[in-house]
C-alpha cells in the first residue's frame, strides 16, 4: 500500500467562526522518509478546499480530522422520523451544502438552525427533542459505529450531533461535510468511495488514535512542545522535527498524524476493520485506524 502513496497529509480541522482559523493545521510527510513538515499558513477552510482540489501532490493519502458523516446505523436514519432524511453520505453532504450554501467560510449554522433539523442537535441553548433515537434528551448523544470502536480502544469520542463544549466536533464535522461535497469528482473519500487502485484518496482521521499508537495515553494525547512531539515521532520510527518556531497542539496533532499515516498505510488490515460493512461504509464512513 505504501508504494502507491507518495505523500501523506494530515489536516487538523476547525469549525470555529471567522474567515481564518487558528485551529487548522496541515502537515505533510514524504514516503521517501524524513521528518514531517508543517505548512505554516493562517488557513481558511476555503484555502484547504483549494489545496485539495487544485494543488494536491500526486498519489497523496489525506487525513482529515473530523467526522465525515452523522450516525445512521443506531436509529436506521440520520434524522429518524423526517421524511427527507438522506440515504447516504454524499446525499448528506449535498443537503448540508444546499441548506448552508449562502454562508461564507463553509459555515453550517443555517443547517443546525433549520426548523426541521434543529431538534436532532444539542447546542448552547437547548437539547433537541430528537437528540436520542427514542426522542429522549439523554446521555452524550448518538454515535457512529466507528466512534463505538474508538471508545473500545480507549478514546473518548463526541457525538457529531453535539455542538456544545470545547471538545465537541459537531460544528467542525458539518463544515467539513460541506467541503467533502465540493470535492466530489475531485478526490475520493474512503470508505464512502471504494479505495482506488491508484491516485490520491481522503480518509477521516482521529489524531488521538495516532497519539495512542505513538505511546501517548488518552489523557495525554495532546502535545504542546517539540520535546513531546519528537518522543512520539521516535516511537513511529520518524526523524524528529526541528524547532523552527512556535508550536501548539494543532500543529503537533497534524505533524504526528502525517508521520503515523506514513507508517501504517501499507498495512492491509487498516483498510478492512471488522465492523465496516457496506451499509456502514456508505452511510457513516469510518475513521482510519479504528477497530
From TrEMBL:
Source species, domain of life: Bacteria
Protein's name according to its UniProt entry: DUF429 domain-containing protein
Species of provenance: Qipengyuania vulgaris
Amino acid at each position: 500500500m505504501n508504494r502507491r502513496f507518495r505523500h501523506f497529509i494530515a489536516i487538523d480541522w476547525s469549525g470555529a467562526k471567522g474567515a481564518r482559523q487558528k485551529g487548522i493545521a496541515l502537515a505533510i510527510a514524504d514516503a521517501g522518509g524524513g521528518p514531517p513538515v508543517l505548512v505554516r499558513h493562517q488557513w481558511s477552510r476555503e484555502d484547504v478546499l483549494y489545496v485539495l482540489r487544485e494543488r494536491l501532490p500526486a498519489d497523496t493519502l489525506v487525513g482529515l480530522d473530523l467526522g465525515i458523516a452523522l450516525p445512521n446505523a443506531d436509529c436506521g436514519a440520520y434524522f429518524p422520523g423526517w421524511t427527507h432524511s438522506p440515504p447516504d453520505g454524499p446525499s448528506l453532504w449535498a443537503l448540508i451544502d444546499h441548506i448552508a450554501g449562502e454562508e461564507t467560510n463553509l459555515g453550517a449554522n443555517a443547517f443546525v438552525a433549520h426548523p426541521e433539523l434543529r431538534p436532532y442537535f444539542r447546542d448552547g441553548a437547548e437539547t433537541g427533542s430528537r437528540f436520542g433515537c427514542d426522542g429522549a434528551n439523554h446521555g452524550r448523544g448518538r454515535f457512529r459505529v466507528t466512534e463505538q470502536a474508538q471508545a473500545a480502544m480507549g478514546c473518548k469520542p463526541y457525538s457529531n450531533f453535539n455542538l456544545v463544549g470545547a471538545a465537541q466536533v459537531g460544528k467542525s464535522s458539518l463544515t467539513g461535510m460541506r467541503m467533502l461535497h465540493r470535492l466530489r469528482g475531485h478526490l475520493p473519500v474512503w470508505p464512502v468511495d471504494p479505495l482506488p487502485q491508484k491516485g490520491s484518496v481522503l480518509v477521516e482521521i482521529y489524531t488521538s488514535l495516532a497519539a495512542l499508537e505513538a505511546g501517548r495515553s488518552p489523557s495525554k494525547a495532546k502535545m504542546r512542545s517539540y520535546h513531546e512531539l519528537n518522543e512520539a515521532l521516535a516511537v513511529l520510527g520518524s526523524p524528529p522535527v526541528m524547532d523552527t518556531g512556535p508550536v501548539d497542539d494543532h500543529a503537533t496533532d497534524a505533524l504526528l498524524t502525517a508521520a503515523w499515516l506514513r507508517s501504517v498505510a501499507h498495512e492491509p488490515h487498516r483498510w478492512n476493520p471488522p465492523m465496516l460493512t457496506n451499509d456502514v461504509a456508505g452511510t457513516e464512513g469510518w475513521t482510519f485506524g479504528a477497530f
